[in-house]
Design goal:
The complex is a heterodimer.
Chain A (H helix, E strand, L loop, with lengths): L8 H6 L11 E4 L2 E9 L7 E10 L5 E8 L2 E12 L2 E6 L4 E3 L4 E4 L4 E8 L8 E8 L3 E10 L23
Parallel strand pairs in A: 2-11
Antiparallel strand pairs in A: 1-2, 2-3, 3-8, 3-9, 4-5, 4-7, 4-10, 5-6, 5-9, 10-11
Chain B lengths: L2 H25 L27 E4 L4 E3 H4 L4 E6 L6 H16 L7 E6 L7 H7 L8 E4 L2 H10 L4 E5 L5 E6 L2 E4 L5 E5 L5 H13 L4
Parallel strand pairs in B: 3-4, 4-5
Antiparallel strand pairs in B: 1-2, 1-5, 3-8, 6-7, 8-9
The chains are: A mainly beta, B alpha+beta.
């Protein structure tokens, strides 16, 4: 069942920590490795934000990311974005996102992402946003999302096809 | 036929197919919200009929029509502020491209038209746009005014209910690049890299006949 690797961080994050990890940050929950949750700053009146991370399943059983909660949002859902014929579509993944044994799934801009809905305050660059991600098998996992500037690119290894010229600020 | 001509013909053919394809893609299967009708464009020659007259209100409170934008090339982009990614990223990219264009950026106007006038009031847009280049206009209007401009640009948008009684919007997410007479010239796609975007912007600015 759930194992919290970094307890007490969520509380600290509410103080909007100004020190962010030098590079990526990882969390473990049973056989799951959650790599570098990150988000982007939001314009002033925006009421939504997106969250991204990589999830690796080192176990023998499949698991599912079902969604989550955050003190900074009314709801956190798993959404899929797609673009066809120039039209952007977004849909909740009602059954969640499966992570098969041995597989790494990347939530990234332009694709599957976490949707923070009805955020209670803007996400500001350099802050960290606490959230609890819910997995079908691994249960709830507390993580911190590093907030990068608007338009920031995914961390090295990510591919977005846009805004490559603006690397995320690494303090 | 000399090889060069073959290349030219091939390119023009590809361009024609591309334009027709874009026209169909933008109009064919895309219901315009509120009307339920489908717009069918039959392109016989030249570019599809994209663009036309509109009347909207800017985030600064001014009435803005197509006539106000004409005289300089302009870019039109449809979106909404409850958009987690494409819309802020596109506005951010336009802001960056304007920096890179330097003084040339004053020779083109960008307009961000909300497809969600219900939530995107002038006040909401005014706060939202503080994160971007102040020269970019954000435009809203009545549902009918928004439907009219989307129809003119063959842009689609659709309200999609979400859990908890909310909704999100599907919408055309390209930046339409129009010449100074309001004619469609090309478009910028969200997935395009910076250099491609800059090349297209410089081309439409150069066509301004300064």
């Amino acid at each position: 069942m759930p194992s919290f690797i970094r307890p007490a961080l969520a509380g600290a994050a509410l103080l909007a920590a100004t020190i962010t990890p030098a590079s990526s940050h990882d969390y473990k929950a049973g056989p799951l490795v959650l790599n570098h949750p990150w988000s982007r700053a939001t314009p002033g009146s925006a009421r939504v934000a997106a969250g991204y991370l990589k999830i690796t399943n080192t176990g023998a059983q499949p698991d599912r990311l079902l969604g989550g909660t955050s003190p900074l949002a009314v709801r956190v859902e798993v959404h899929e974005m797609s673009t066809a014929d120039g039209v952007m579509r977004m849909r909740p993944l009602d059954a969640g996102l499966e992570i098969k044994p041995g597989e790494t799934v990347e939530l990234k801009p332009g694709a599957i992402h976490l949707m923070f809905e009805q955020i209670v305050e803007p996400f500001r660059a350099k802050n960290r946003v606490p959230a609890t991600l819910t997995f079908e098998r691994a249960g709830p996992v507390e993580v911190l999302f590093n907030v990068e500037p608007i338009g920031a690119s995914p961390p090295a290894g990510g591919h977005e096809g846009a805004a490559h010229d603006t690397p995320g600020r690494a303090p | 036929m000399r090889p060069l001509r073959v290349v030219q013909f091939t390119l023009w053919g590809a361009a024609a197919v591309g334009l027709v394809g874009l026209g169909l893609a933008l109009s064919g299967a895309l219901p315009i919200a509120g009307s339920g009708q489908r717009v069918v464009t039959t392109t016989t020659a030249g570019a599809p009929q994209i663009g036309g007259s509109f009347r909207l209100t800017s985030h600064a409170g001014a009435v803005v029509t197509d006539r106000d934008l004409k005289g300089k090339p302009f870019g039109v982009f449809f979106g909404f502020t409850h958009c987690p990614e494409v819309c802020p990223t596109t506005l951010f990219e336009l802001t960056e491209r304007m920096k890179e264009l330097g003084p040339l950026a004053d020779k083109i106007t960008f307009a961000f038209v909300t497809v969600d006038p219900e939530r995107d009031t002038r006040e909401v847009l005014a706060e939202y746009m503080q994160a971007f280049d102040p020269r970019i206009l954000a435009l809203t209007g009545t549902p009918d005014e928004v439907a009219a401009v989307a129809k003119a640009y063959k842009a689609s948008y659709r309200k999609v209910p979400t859990e908890g009684g909310g909704y999100t919007m599907d919408h055309t997410a390209i930046v339409y690049l129009m010449d100074k007479d309001g004619r469609f010239t090309s478009s910028i796609d969200y997935h395009e890299n910076k250099d491609t975007q800059l090349t297209k912007l410089r081309r439409v600015v150069a066509g301004a006949g300064t």
